[in-house]
Queue: 3 jobs
Job 1
Amino acid sequence: MSRFLFFILLVANVAFGAHLWLTAAPAEPDFSRRERNRDEAKLVAVIPPVIAARKAEETRAQVQSLAGAACVEFAGVGTAELAQARQAFAAMQLGDRLVERRVEEITRYWVFVPPARDRRTADQTAANLRGRGISDISIRPDLAISLGVFSTEDAARRFLSLVEAKGAKGVQMGPFAKEVKDAVFLVREPDTELVARLALLQREYSTATLRAVACPAPEAPANAQAAKKAGAS
């Protein structure tokens, strides 16, 4: 009798286990284990064929328009992208055919008296200005006298008119501080292949421009300039 009960319980357990297995929701497979280098995966943007064809046609037309140019100018490279652009041009191995020029922007203007010939003269000029009610001044190490620094040219010009109205003499206005705005790369005698490379490089910089320009006159060597000055004297 006990064996029969044991057999009945065993069959019941097996049946219950089979029921649980058959009615359980199928587990979703974990495909993440099959992935390799998940953290290194990158999404690649796919350019629609119509846009790609249009860009290719624009590049072809640009290369044709610049073919035969004595010099081309690659301009509009911002300071944040300057190091990257320099590496790209260095890879072209252009040597002395490449000239880099920085475009500076005036960020501050000042009203000043030009440097005096000696400290005594600078002190006398400063005393004269204070006597005319212009007290916020300072003598710089080069003996120029600063009357004020301004963020805009218009503000500096208005202040200059104010101090001149007080009878100040010899006061001027000019740039005080400059910052590099962007860079210009000039390439001499580019062939068609090089122009095409420049046109493709231009796409990597949103503000860059590429155009044909007149070649600047080559600079004379330093020894030739010295000899010319010596002959003139």
Job 2
Amino acid sequence: MQPQGMTITLRPRSAWEATDLGVALVRAQAGRIFAAWCLLSIPVWIACNAAAWALDTPWLALLAMWWLKPLFDRIPLYAISQAVFGHTPSLRAIVRAFFTWGGNAIAPWLLWRRLHFARMLLLPVDLLERVSGAQRGERVRALTRGRDAGPRHQLLIVGAEFELVLVLGLISGVLLLVPTPLLPDATAALFRQMFENPPPWAQVLFNACVWAASSLTEPFVVGAGFGLYLNRRVQLEAWDIEHAFRRLAARLARSAQVVGALLVLLTLATTPSLAHAASACASTASTSADAAAACNDAGDTPTPASLPALFGKDYRADGAPFAHHLKQVLDGMQRSERDWRWQLRDPEKPDLRGPPEWSLGLGDFMALAARYWLWLLAAAALAFIVYHHAAWLGWLRDPPPSADDPAPLDRQALAAPEPLPTDIPAAVRALWRDGQPRAALALLYRAGVQRVSDGLDAPLPPGATEGQCLRRSRKLADRGYAALFARIVACWQATAYARRLPDEAQLEALLDEWAQPAAVTA
């Protein structure tokens, strides 16, 4: 798997963000995933239940379907792994992939790896990367290290809890169809029918409820595991940085055309606006001048009209009559306020009856189960503390004095860097013909850096970057070699960071110019 062409945003995420990403991928392909799941799992479910019915052990069908979960986990994993790279698979392609994709890789997950808690994280290693042996062991150790151990191991537990909730909800949904007066008797009969002495048809119905709950939750658990897998790959291999470098290289390749087009558009858009603004200012100035001249010619100043002239005989200088009439009107008005409050038409009376008898037994059962779980958790915590007490309490004890003399220091000289060959062009051509273009360009770049250092008679600092070497090369007296070194650095950067190799003609041009005699002086 390589990050090229991915349709998701590549960035390091927390474990919970990664699981949300996987769930979102499953939601985007939910129609095809659930359709393929039903088409492929229903025949297997029918066959398992028929065989278990023939053996008079219906619970074997439940165990078989649970054991075959990794076989069906390939359905959502194939769909979302293809969708991440922009190839949305059809329903027919998903069904075909179930019979042809990852057949050999899924066999260990049905045998000795079936109870592995990190199955959802490691399934993509076997199905997508196709590694095995020691390489797979190293890959698994790299993926399982880190701070995401909690969500990684909790995926299967959370999925099982959701399945349990859905199964209990489906069984309890039957009670919604029972009238309230008959509810206690119906609940007791349902308990006897399903748990005390269930007939075969009741066990098959229970198996159907478990299959439905598993079909609803398992694809999302697989998607959450795939999201954690992608997040670990991003953290380990810096996919986000590589993707950013590729986008930057593509953007720089077309930046010249974009800048030129923007300059042309800006010039065309600015010229009409300036002309229109100048004409508008001229017309406004002429209009203002005409108005001022007209006012000066008239020589008259308008005066405002008085109130008696405006209102005539209806004008009253004293407002006392108006205030008297207003007071009479207000005193004669009757004001009323309404306050709205909601209250039930038939208020409920307190229910003096106690809870039904069947709920008391259910409460006792849940209390007993909770008590046992608390004891198990306490025992697990105690075992964990006993196992790790040496690491936690070691700082309380002083370390015993060492009676042995300290081991002598092992002093070894650092290996000297590999010397450059005498004939650089011949060595570069030999590596290029041997199918090692990256090594050939690395040798040419290293020789170029050494030539710059010799020309300046000053060594470059250890670990100098390409930019630092370029800046130092500008101080060379030989401008021809400075330009040649700039082209060598450009070819090396394109190869090292963008994986864009120069063609053989470009390489030969660099080597021919390298072989030309030049005097490099400080």
Job 3
Amino acid sequence: MKKWADKKRHHTKYKVGDMVLVKLIPQQFKSLRSVHKGLMRRYEGPFPILGKVGKVSYKVELLPRLKIHLIFLESYLKPYHEDKDDPS
């Protein structure tokens, strides 16, 4: 089973300083539990990577208002691609 699951899985390698988006889970935020999931953003960010913690875990510098742990699995991270055409 693991052999077939690993075929579909791809690991993204992040370096220190790379900007990523973090996947939000409503159960982690008391303030978001009352918001309907269709109205909630799926990803928050961008945030810089502070370092690699394990094989698939990264430490991310989050905003203090989020009040959650700083370590995320790479499956909860998505690379941030800045829009060069957007003037704002």
